[in-house]
């Protein structure tokens, strides 16, 4: 399995999977209030009509809610992927 290249320093690739495009857009809007981001890209997800939305966040340009959260959430433990992630 090929791996996607990592985003550049200070950026994060976000994938949102939701039952409807509206739900995915609402989640993306919350993220954009905290971080600068690229234009979102959406794709169909699954046979039931779900939506997969992709966007890139610039974590070096954060709004106050993200700054506070980032400062208190730094962990020394290695992050673990979900069972369905590589």
Task: Write the topology of this structure.
Layout (H helix, E strand, L loop, with lengths): L10 E8 L2 H14 E3 L3 E5 L4 E13 L1 H10 L13
Antiparallel strand pairs: 1-4, 2-4, 3-4
Describe this structure in words.
The protein is an alpha+beta fold and 86 residues long. The protein has one domain. It is 28% helix and 34% strand. The protein is built from two helices and four strands, in the order βαβββα. Strands 1, 2, 3 and 4 form a four-stranded antiparallel β-sheet that branches. A hairpin with a 4-residue loop joins strand 3 and strand 4. The longest helix has 14 residues. 7% of the residues are buried. The model has no long low-confidence stretch (mean pLDDT 80).
Tell me the span between the first and last alpha carbons.
9 Å
Overall 3D shape: globular
Percentage of residues in DSSP E strands: 25-35%
Give the proportion of residues in helices: 25-40%
Order of helices and strands: EHEEEH
**What's the average pLDDT?**
80
